[in-house]
Amino acid sequence: MTRWIAIRMHWGLRIKSATTCWTGNRLNRKTNCRLSPLWAASRPHVNGWPTIAAVRSNALRRCSHPASRRCCAASLPKSLTRLSRWGAAMSIRQSLVDAAAGGCPTGEISIEKVACVFLNRQNPDGGFRGKGSQSDLYYTGFALMSLTALGYASKLTEPADFLDRFGYGDDLDLAHLAALIRSRRLTGRLKPSDADRWAERLEAFRCTDGAYHHLFAGAEGSAYGCFLALGAYQDLGCLPPDTNAMTACLERLNADGGYYNESAIPLVSTPATAAAATTLTALGQPTDSRAAKWLMTSRDPDGGFKVMPAAPMADLLSTAVALYALRVMGTDLASIRSTDRAFVLALWDKTIGFWPNRVDHISDCEYCFYGLLSLGHLQ
After folding, report:
1. How far apart are CA 10 and CA 13, in angstroms?
2. If we measure between CA atoms, which residue out of 249, 316, 323, 335 comes closest to residue 285?
3. Within a domain: residue 33?
4. What's the rounded Cα separation, in Å, for the pair 125 and 49?
5. Rounded Cα distance, 119 and 103, in Å
6. Are 149 and 176 in contact (CB under 8 A)?
7. What is the domain-level CATH number for residue 322?
8. Burial of 112 (0-12, 13-18, 19+ CB in 10 A)
9. Cβ-count burial 264-281 (b if 16+ within 10 Å, e if not)
10. Distance between alpha carbon 104 and the CA centroid of its chain, in Å?
11. How are beta strands 348-349 and 353-354 bridged, if at all?
């Protein structure tokens, strides 16, 4: 029932005219894309993976929007410049997996039982079922994250054949493209030599304002699009070419602490607010101090969070993303832990996993992941 507005809204510009990026590096007025000394000094590869400098410089050459290109070269927060085999210090993917890993055991919800729920949804081709009987890339991404968190990644059928059929995701929207990149990363099938090719696909969703939209490259980006693009770039071991544009896009979507998913639909929601807050924090940017307060206004006194304050009941998607964003922003959850934990536990069905809410007794890999993610923040 809550899917009436929450579906794919999970997490839905002005161009700065200054000629000095926040790092203090003067931009080349002739080329508008001078790399800072930090990037110029970087090695082209780290353990086989292209560094942010290498992928970013290629993205700069592809950038079709001169205005948004001005700050591309030096928009990365200093806290995120240290490189490793897996990219920036802590990716969204890793933080989600780490949080979900703490979701069980919780009484009758054991690691083994939850893992079986996921494994029973895997098809012979290696993909995981969605709403129907066919393997679905979007749900496969959630299943792989969950099984990784549970320590059961080695128990699943190799998904190579299923993932390979999508190639580089030429016909996918951003949500499914990000799921493909993440699934390949989680299964060790994301080749370092292909990082630039994947980045080129992600750039197809880059809008005129320099941010990203989850469906198409239009005039303005969306909160969900920025969240997806950032996570996908992190999975490639780098960040998007113009993080300043993403920050500016999200600032424009701010409405008194809550966030729209996109300006074309000025509707503040829990998923969009969580997406914006998570993205800003991951970029090392300050979040609106009112964001946490707005999220709490969407909380049901009986436990859980609603897609928006006026919604009739709490749902698991909104609860999971709200709790994740609140923790990312450093909010103390002690006062709501007991009630919200009881809400999530009441949605558990040992035969199919976690229900999306109290009235819809169905489940899928996505909601099972949300159950783990919620409990991981409430233990």
Report:
1. 21
2. 249
3. no
4. 28
5. 17
6. no
7. 1.50.10.20
8. exposed
9. eeebbbbbbbbbbbbbbb
10. 22
11. antiparallel
Which residues make Cβ contacts (< 8 Å) with residue 61, sequence separation at least 6? none
Q: With a cut of 70, say whether residue 44 has pLDDT above it.
A: no
- Which of 316, 229, 237, 242 is closest to 278 using CA atoms? 229
CA distances to 255, 287, 329, 337 from 290, in Å: 10, 8, 11, 21
Q: How far apart are CA 51 and CA 239, in angstroms?
A: 10
Q: What are the E-state strand segments in 211-319? A: 254-255, 258-262, 265-269
Q: Are 181 and 230 in contact (CB under 8 A)?
A: no
Local structure of 151: helix, strand or coil: coil
Mind listing the pLDDT tens digit for each residue in 239-279?
999 999 999 999 999 999 999 999 999 999 999 999 999 99
User: How far, in whole angstroms, is CA 26 from its chain's centroid?
Assistant: 32
Residue 62 covered by a domain:
no
End-to-end Cα, the chain, rounded Å: 27
User: What is the rounded distance in angstroms from the CA atom of residue 89 to the CA atom of residue 27?
Assistant: 27
What pLDDT is stored for residue 190 in this prediction? Answer: 94
Examine residue 133 and state whether it is found in any structural domain, yes or no. yes
Q: Give the tens place of pLDDT for each residue, 95-128.
A: 999 999 999 877 879 999 999 999 999 999 999 9
Q: Counting Cβ atoms within 10 Å, is residue 107 exposed (0-12), middle (13-18) or buried (19+)?
A: exposed
How many domains are contained in the chain? Answer: 1
Which residue range(s) make up the domain with 97?
92-377
Average pLDDT over residues 305-324: 99
Residue 286 lies in a domain: yes
Q: How far is CA 317 from CA 145, 182, 188, 257, in A?
A: 16, 20, 28, 20
Query: Angle 35-38-39 (CA atoms, 0-180°, nearest 5)?
Result: 50
Structure tokens given for 13 = 């510009």
User: What is the overall mean pLDDT for the chain?
Assistant: 82
Is the pTM higher than 0.85? no
Query: Distance between alpha carbon 160 and the CA centroid of its chain, in Å?
Result: 23
Q: Copy the structure tokens of residue 287.
A: 């979040």
- Backbone angle region of 242, left / alpha / beta, with phi > 0 → left and psi within -120 to 50 → alpha: beta
112-to-128, 240, 352, 366, 372 alpha-carbon distances in Å: 18, 38, 13, 18, 13
